[in-house]
Specification:
Oligomer: single chain
Strand order of the largest sheet: 1-9-8-5-4-2-3
Distance between the termini: 23 Å
CATH architecture of the largest domain: 3-Layer(aba) Sandwich
Strand content: 5-15%
CATH class of the largest domain: Alpha Beta
Structural class: alpha/beta
CATH superfamily of the largest domain: Type I PLP-dependent aspartate aminotransferase-like (Major domain)
């Protein structure tokens, strides 16, 4: 089965992990700091590494102080964790519709969804295309809310020349194998706010306070540590950070290869009846994470099944979050975000990853053209 996305691992990546295995530190060692510094170069802001993209979202919301009574405005066109991690902290999720062209959170819809209880507006950079963060910044400022970016798809992207990790108050990344760079499992939180980043750092380390200057009882002894606020063990180990640092060194090549594949898809599939290609990312230099086409005329299920039967691992990204039973049981109903729901009904992700060969891409397009007839 040809996958829709996969990791790109070379011998240098393997050797970087082996070097850690030969050393003294498997976790909480020097490879963690090296990875976070390398990531800052791409994110444009200091970073704290964590164990997954979901952990990054949970950590970011916790660092922002989200809790019961707060509201988080976000897009339904994302993986469920963008919303569920805030809901687990007690927040009420308010879904706002997407922009038809970019598939990102529509600033006008986000503004209409804000209330006096809005604490966070969480945008999602769908498929690697940055959301309209300048417009969303104005919405967040008027609402007195923090602007958050779920950049799981967009590490390596820029908007107006600025890297995605510098556009919002806090940004989260994912390093799952299908993402733009991988640590196997992993994520990170980026922010230009030292206070928010310190809260994130403590949260990912069980809330431990080890600095005597910040402890309530600093004279207990050299072993002493305290917990002032609850946290979790979300520490990313040195083994995975070593892989991540090596992957970040290859990220520019990954970006160029993804861009070439996207351009070639555009050439091979231009003008095909029953097919709508993704719009260009005006004003942005995206790291294309997904090649998300729309299958028209109610044929998405048929095309999905027939492509899978042909050994081509197409995917659907994503089920609108408010459709999941866990949100339906809370009272959310279908029809809440009609543009996102219409997009979902037609969306199909074609294979896209740096190792995708021209012959495999030809195979994808030939199969799709044969089905659409």
């Amino acid at each position: 089965m040809l996958p829709y996305g996969r990791q790109s691992i070379d011998e240098g990546d393997i050797e970087a992990v082996a070097d850690v295995l030969r050393g003294d530190w498997l976790t909480t060692g020097p490879a963690v700091g090296a990875f976070e510094r390398a990531l800052e170069g791409w994110a444009g802001a200091p970073c704290v590494s964590v164990t997954s993209g979901t952990a990054a979202l949970h950590t970011a919301y916790a660092a922002a102080g989200i809790g019961p009574g707060d509201e988080v405005v976000t897009s339904p066109m994302t993986f469920v964790a963008t919303a569920s991690t805030a809901a687990m902290l007690g927040a009420r999720i308010v879904f706002a519709d997407i922009d038809e062209e970019s598939v990102n959170l529509d600033p006008a819809a986000a503004e209409a969804a804000t209330t006096a209880r809005t604490r966070v507006i969480a945008a999602v950079d769908y498929a690697g295309r940055p959301a309209d963060h300048p417009a969303l910044r104005e919405v967040a400022d008027r609402a007195g809310a923090l602007l958050m970016a779920d950049a799981a798809h967009s590490l390596g992207s820029t908007l107006g020349g600025r890297p995605v990790g510098s556009l919002a108050d806090v940004t989260t990344f994912s390093f799952f194998p299908t993402k733009n760079a991988t640590t196997g499992e992993g994520g990170a939180v980026a922010s230009t706010s030292p206070a928010l980043l310190e809260r994130a750092r403590r949260f990912r380390c069980i809330g431990l306070v080890r600095d005597p200057a910040e402890q309530r009882y600093p004279d207990e002894g050299g072993w002493h540590q305290e917990v002032h606020e609850f946290g979790l063990n979300y520490r990313l180990p040195d083994l995975l950070c070593a892989l991540g640092t090596r992957q970040l060194g290859r990220l520019a090549d990954f970006k160029a290869r993804r861009a070439a594949l996207v351009a070639r898809y555009g050439e091979l599939l231009a003008g095909v009846p029953g097919l709508r290609l993704p719009a260009a990312a005006r004003g942005a230099d995206p790291m294309w994470h997904l090649y998300a086409v729309r299958i028209l005329d109610g044929r998405r299920r048929e095309v999905f099944d027939r492509m899978r039967a042909a050994g081509i691992g197409v995917q659907v990204n994503y089920i609108p979050v408010h459709w999941h039973p866990v949100f339906a049981d809370l009272g959310y109903r279908r029809g809440l975000c009609p543009r996102a729901e219409a997009f979902y009904a037609e969306q199909l992700s074609l294979p896209l990853y740096p190792g995708l060969s021209r012959s495999d891409q030809d195979r994808v397009c030939d199969a799709l053209l044969g089905i659409l007839g």
